[in-house]
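Need residues for this backbone.
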């Protein structure tokens, strides 16, 4: 046990590990804030669809030698979020069908572009790293960390500021409209902030695993708590705990960061399921 603490202490002396923990905690926190609302509104898979769009955006950016241009990826992903929201309101194309179309199409287009135009000699490695996460979380620059900090603060402030409006829109859009709340505007806000969080999370867990950060903490909290506020608070605690434990385990066991975080969240979910069953029986 002492060897483990010594090893962790040595790792924590490196700035890149500190940066990884900071970014991991912030992304997990923001994901959980949005996750409860997205799960309750049955928008869980919008995270999956937008993450594939972000993959396609990264592929385009790499081809035009702008692989590090996070702003370009932000722009494309946010535009896709707006498109999904607007088209999802069209009775001719159901929202889930549109998400599936955009998700598969962006994933295929991104992979095709990386194969046809990429100058990298390790295309398979690049694709695998983007889809499932890699050690890129351990090679974050100061600029990446500050972008994540600023965006996380912005998302948190907006969520807290519009908390009551988001609550109303989440549970009853018709009632919210009747009370004068601009439902379309708040749905757009949720889509855009989700796109921002997804782009930030690409370096942490990869595009294929991002939905886990959004879904599992919320579902775990719902096994025990019933009110929106308590579920949101518990979800943020679970998400941050899962991110920290996942990053630490990946360092100790030399496992992929993203997959380790997701597996930890799955374990927490099953623990909360058991606790929920026990509480129901009392």
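Answer:
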């Amino acid at each position: 046990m002492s060897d483990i603490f010594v090893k962790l202490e040595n790792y924590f002396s490196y700035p890149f590990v500190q940066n990884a923990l900071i970014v991991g905690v912030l992304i997990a926190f923001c994901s959980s804030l949005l996750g409860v609302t997205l799960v309750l509104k049955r928008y869980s898979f919008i995270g999956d669809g937008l993450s594939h769009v972000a993959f396609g955006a990264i592929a385009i950016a790499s081809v035009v030698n702008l692989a590090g241009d996070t702003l370009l990826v932000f722009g494309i992903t946010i535009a896709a979020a707006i498109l999904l929201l607007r088209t999802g309101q069209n009775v001719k194309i159901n929202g889930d069908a549109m998400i599936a179309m955009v998700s598969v199409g962006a994933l295929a287009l991104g992979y095709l572009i990386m194969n046809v135009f990429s100058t990298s000699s390790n295309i398979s490695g690049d694709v695998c790293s983007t889809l499932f996460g890699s050690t890129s979380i351990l090679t974050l620059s100061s600029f990446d960390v500050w972008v994540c900090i600023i965006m996380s603060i912005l998302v948190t402030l907006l969520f807290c500021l519009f908390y009551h409006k988001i609550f109303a829109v989440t549970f009853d859009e018709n009632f919210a409209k009747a009370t004068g709340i601009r439902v379309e505007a708040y749905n757009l806000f949720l889509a855009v902030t989700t796109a921002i969080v997804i782009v930030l999370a690409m370096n942490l867990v990869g595009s294929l695993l991002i939905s886990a950060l959004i879904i599992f903490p919320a579902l775990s909290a719902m096994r025990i708590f019933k009110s929106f506020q308590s579920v949101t608070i518990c979800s943020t605690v679970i998400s941050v705990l899962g991110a920290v434990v996942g990053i630490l385990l990946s360092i100790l066991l030399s496992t992929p960061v993203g997959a380790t975080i997701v597996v930890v969240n799955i374990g927490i979910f099953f623990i909360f399921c058991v606790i929920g069953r026990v509480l129901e029986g009392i």
